[in-house]
Design brief:
By secondary structure, the chain is mainly α. The chain has one domain. 89% of the residues lie in helices and 0% in strands.
């Protein structure tokens, strides 16, 4: 094996390491995005639960009736 072959092999190995590193970075970025999406979904579910509990409390205390709440939801959805 002559010097040119050795240098070519070294260059190829360097390029392979660089590409492997880039693939790993892309994989980590994708995993982070999935984690962010999962965290948002969990927060959304928690907020929905709290909202439902709050509405039930307001209805049970007579602050608002279920039909009034339903009408407000229907009105808001019609504006979307």
């Amino acid at each position: 094996m002559d010097l040119i072959d050795i240098l070519w092999d070294m260059n190829q190995m360097r390029r392979i390491r660089e590409l492997s590193g880039e693939v790993e970075r892309l994989h980590q970025d994708r995993m982070a995005e999935r984690g962010d999406a999962r965290q948002l979904a969990d927060e959304n579910a928690a907020l929905r639960l709290r909202l439902g509990l709050l509405v039930r409390l307001l209805i049970s205390k007579g602050v608002i009736t279920a039909p009034e709440y339903a009408a407000m939801i229907a009105e808001a959805e019609s504006k979307e």
